[in-house]
Amino acid sequence: MNSPDLKQTVHFLVAVDGSEPSLAALRWVAQTASAGLRVQCTVLAVQHPVMAGEVSALAAASVTIEARAHEAAGILAQASAVLRQAGLPHATQTRVDDPANAVIEQAQALGCDAIVIGRRGHGVLRSALLGSVSAEVVRSASVPVIVVGAVAAVPDTPQSPLRILVALDGSDCALRAADFAALLLSNADSRGQLHLLHVDSTQTLAETIFGQRERVLAHWSAKHAQEALAGPRSHFERQGISFTKHAVSSDDPGQAILQTARDLDCTVVVMGTRGLGPVAGMLLGSVAQHVLAKAALAVALVR
Fold first, then answer.
1. Cα–Cα distance, 113 to 175 (Å, whole number)
2. How far apart are CA 255 and CA 36, in angstroms?
3. CA distance to 106, 112, 116, 185, 241, per residue, from 193 (Å)
4. Could you count the other beta carbons within 10 Å of the beta carbon of residue 84?
5. Crossing angle, helix 99-110 and helix 132-140, to 10 degrees?
6. Residues paired with residue 94 on neighbouring β-strands, in sequence order
7. How high does pLDDT run on average in the chain?
8. What is the rounded distance in angstroms from the CA atom of residue 147 to the CA atom of residue 120?
9. Complete edge-to-edge strand list for the sheet that includes strand 10-16
10. pTM for the full model?
């Protein structure tokens, strides 16, 4: 690990709307901090601009705006209670804007390292897997987006170490995913663990043409696993970050990623989106969507 004096903090922007999924995102941040990650947290509540149809003789614009402000204050108070329970310092902000634009622009303005959102939220984070807001955040944000599933209440005792699984396919976006994992590990305590995973398909063109399935598959898989892991491995070695390599064969890369994460009791899966490498299409959107849909842990998507 890097020496303690080089560590800073990882700045998360957590977008909240008062829903249980957005509270789960806050709890994940709190648990990650208790697991040894040095965290700075900004909580953002976004209110839609007042539309013409919301204003009438019976509901003046000022009344609507005041109601929106009161709602935002309540959402932020609820969020602050979660973070105070965990002893995590934080800042709160509110904006009136298009939700996706507000989240992305605020993260950029604050120089945040990542955006954290809850899965299948309502309101500003409506349908974090498939909804237009979250899809736009994942597609357009210049920083990683961490999508969080259900997380239990913050416990009083310290959590297990930060355990990160990075899914790699040799593509540029997978290398950027490795960079984000390095950022997390370099700012975590010495208990942190890093696992690098490469998944090869069990169906190969070489296998079909040449036969001798086991021999061809073993050679093909080993070759591409080495290629996919080479760049990140050198990167982590230069930073003095220890890691464990894993290579598996599966016709279902998403399921293989999730099973490996479960087996290793990981805290977060980090993966690139729309990656194309030695295994063409391994980390395309469909795989990322499968991981998001099935994951019981947080998934960090790096564009």
1. 16
2. 28
3. 31, 23, 21, 8, 9
4. 12
5. 30
6. 45
7. 78
8. 10
9. 90-96, 39-47, 10-16, 114-118, 145-148, 298-302, 268-272, 163-168, 193-200, 244-249
10. 0.81
How far apart CA 23 and CA 82 sit, in angstroms, is 8
Phi, psi torsion values for 69, nearest 5 degrees: -65, -40
Measuring CA to CA, which residue among 130, 287, 113, 119 is closest to residue 197? Answer: 287
Per-residue pLDDT of 13-53, as tens digits, reads: 999 988 888 899 999 999 999 888 999 999 999 887 755 45
What is the number of helices (H) and of strands (E) in the chain? Answer: 9, 10
Pick the closest to residue 166 from 246, 282, 224 (CA basis): 246
Judged by DSSP in three states, 151 sits in: coil
Question: Torsion over CA of 184, 3, 109 and 26, rounded to 10 degrees?
Answer: 40
Q: What amino acid occupies position 170?
A: G
Tokens 């990882």: give the residue.
10
Residue with tokens 């564009």: 303
* Structure token digits, residue 260: 């490996």
* Token pair 């700045």: residue: 11
**Helix, strand, coil shares of the chain as percentages rounded to 5?**
45, 20, 30
- Residue pair 146/128 in contact (Cβ under 8 Å)? The answer is no
Torsion angle, alpha carbons of 79, 80, 83, 85, to 10: -110
- The more confidently predicted of residues 275 and 294 is 294
**Considering only CA atoms, which of 9, 35, 14, 41 is closest in space to residue 186?**
9
CB 98 within 8 A of CB 133: no
What confidence tens digit (pLDDT) does each residue in 245-269 have? 998 888 888 999 999 999 999 999 9
Helix (H, G, I), strand (E, B) or coil at 199: strand
> Quick count: other Cβ atoms within 10 Å of Cβ 5?
5
Distance (Å) of CA 186 to CA 54, 70, 207, 300: 49, 40, 41, 17
Place of tokens 């789960």: 24
